[in-house]
Prior knowledge:
The complex is a heterodimer.
Chain A: E1 2-6, H1 17-28, E2 31-38, H2 42-49, E3 54-61, H3 70-80, E4 86-90, H4 93-106, E5 110-114, E6 116-119, E7 122-127, E8 132-138, E9 143-147, E10 162-166, E11 175-182, E12 195-199, H5 210-219, E13 222-225, H6 227-231, E14 252-256, H7 262-268, E15 273-278, E16 291-294, H8 297-307
Helix pairs in contact in A: 3-4, 5-8
Chain B: E1 2-7, E2 9-11, E3 33-35, H1 37-51, E4 57-64, H2 69-78, E5 82-87, H3 94-108, E6 112-116, H4 127-135, E7 138-149, E8 152-159, E9 162-169, E10 172-176, H5 188-194, E11 199-203, E12 215-221, E13 230-232, H6 235-244
Parallel strand pairs in B: 1-4, 1-6, 4-5, 5-11, 6-10, 7-10
Antiparallel strand pairs in B: 2-3, 7-8, 8-9
Amino acid sequence: MSILVFAEHDNSELKSDTLKTVAAAQAIGGDIHLLVAGHNCQAVAEAASKVNGVSKVLVADNAAYEHQLAENVSLLVTELAADYSHIIATALTTGKNFMPRVAALLDVAQISDIIAVESSDTFVRPIYAGNAIATVQSLDSKKVITVRSTGFDAVATDGNAEIVALDKVTDAGISSHVSDELSVSERPDLGAASVVISGGRGMQNGENFKLLEGIADKLGAAIGASRAAVDAGFVPNDMQVGQTGKIVAPDLYIAVGISGAIQHLAGMKDSKVIVAINKDAEAPIFQVADYGLVADLFDALPELESKL
Amino acid sequence: MKVLVPIKRVIDYNVKVRVKADNSNVDLANVKMAINPFCEIAVEEAVRLKEAGTATEVIAVSIGNKSCQEQLRTALALGADRAIQIDTDENLDSINVAKLLQKIVEEEQPQLVILGKQSIDSDNNQTGQMLAALTGMAQGTFASAVTIDGDKVNVTREVDSGLQTISLNLPAIVTTDLRLNEPRYASLPNIMKAKRKPLDVKSAADFGIDLTARTKLIKVTPPAERKAGIIVESIDELVEKLKNEAKVIS
Lengths: 308, 250
């Protein structure tokens, strides 16, 4: 069996989620190749060659792949797929975008967001916002899979894989990139942070999210948000934790002014330790919190910051 | 332009699902069902395009047994012009859903297909992308803004690092994110009017597509329960517990 893993990157840096996705590939077992599709992404290829367990890095470096448009990347992956039994990507927005397209081009089903591998054709994935766990067997000859990285531990970066440049370009010519509006933050990446502090509707406005910053600085934490906080315009969408936002599983998750709707819990309830600060003692978040503090967040946050 | 909106009947988003005792699936007997929230946003976007004079006709389509006509009537009450039910009792994989939708796209020739980005039951996030692949169309997934620009459509997408805007040739596929719009409520007169709008029923078997299942559900189990935590009385106690008991901060 050979497994093709799509490397998650931004053309300059290999994302740590790729290390977890490779762990999922190792659980399946077989020869693992990493595909780096991008533009001016040599640094990513170098980093990819050091990922433990990878025997070969395929590099498709072309302007057609710079923004990883689904139309172009899916053609590339579909073409490469002939040599592989499993095609795997991380269940982040890039993988979620192009992988089902690959599956359809190959005429196979996709197994999305797996959190465990039972065997080479059977996988475990959450459904109904994580309120049920399904074990699913793929009956197709080729398996197209996306991996929820919080389900796997990152592999080491002590490998030494061969780097092979691909020169064929697959440009569908039906879509183009216009612009990006990226959030710039000095803090750790939400998906990779070991501590996350999130604010919800209780924060009342975007200005008050500053109250989380001092604490985040002291804990080296990323700052997240509930959908209510994003919808209200307090913070940008890429900070949303939940069923339809980011899935996180840090060592410590601090939920501030978040009631704990099903959809939010779906994104954080696999955190190792959950702390809830809420003035409503009846809030559902307290049912999953290891440590709950019933208090007004405007009193609690400055005090917490001063005592860390 | 003609806009096609595939919608799905799912469990209401507020319901806490229960897994059946025999672990065969979740228990959907006597559970409140509704239109998938992302599909509702798709209908709203299509209706807004019609109100803006961009779209000429909005067609809602759903795949399922007779009960999904209820959600199609909801779409009609929200402003869709007509509806198509593809009748089947099977629980289809996304790839087979996409193949049936491909046939409807061939029949109706819409310029734009708007779907939800995922259904809140299976959480697959696949159908729109698969339909795009099968029809050879470009795709704008996780859309938070959609602007028609001549023979192209600009889609602003919610991506991990913020927002990304792409331009797609029409016809194209768009999948909705939560922030695309705020769906309206259907008024009583519109609900009454929706009862008289056309709703075609087609049998899934008549399309001549092989709808054999590609996946097998082995079992469904409840997620691991978190053990009950404690309520601390003060910030001091909280910090002390995090340092010495949970050892997650130093």
